[in-house]
User: What shape does this take?
Amino acid sequence: MGLNYIWDLLVRAGQAGLDKRHIRFIPARVYSPYMELSLQEINAGAGQHELEVEVNPYYRFYNIFGEMLDINLSEDSEFRHELFDILVHFLAELDLMQGMNKREYYIRFVLRDLESGTFGERVKERMRLFTREEQEWIAGAILRMYDTGEPLHLLKSMVGQVFRHSTIYVNSEEKDEMLFYIGQKCTETGRMKLETLMELFLPVRYRTEVYWDCHIGIIDAEETMIVDRIALY
Assistant: This one.
């Protein structure tokens, strides 16, 4: 899918792991009057140090760039192109902010706190193990936890999002205990991701047991009573 708007480019750049500071906007020499960007795909430039993007400055911003990029002006060309790059970055950020609702705006703040170590250095280091989409789920769940004060429900939801075949059992009557069946083989990455979710959402009074690819046996549930596939509880 092609890119048309500068805000779309910044969103795709983040998804591709390209720092927006490494994007340089330049006035397009040849452009379509119906397109803002001539770039079709960002993935080709995601691994480069700097991605140069041509922008049709008259598609939406003629009032800003009409005189500044007048072809009859020949002086201070380098300065005007540097200013163009700065202004387009600023306009792209305005695009993003206007397209975000209040909650999405707060999620960006929580993501920044997660990445800066506000929730601890271990969480900061392990956030890179999650995809960008998973990171946004986690940030949204943290906001809901502050709103609702229900970390157990959010922990179950987040584990279910990250580990699609998982099941969680909560025993709050006899003792505060959670049993996690993950539904996949244990890997170092998987273990650290689960520990991070527990660190963020698990109440301190709860003890846990984790079962990765072998389910605990449950009477009358035949799929959990397979010989050599039953975990002891």
User: Anything to note?
Assistant: The first strand starts at residue 23 and ends at 27. The chain has eight helices and seven strands. Residues 26 and 81 are 7 Å apart (CA to CA). Confidence is low (pLDDT under 50) at residues 219-227.
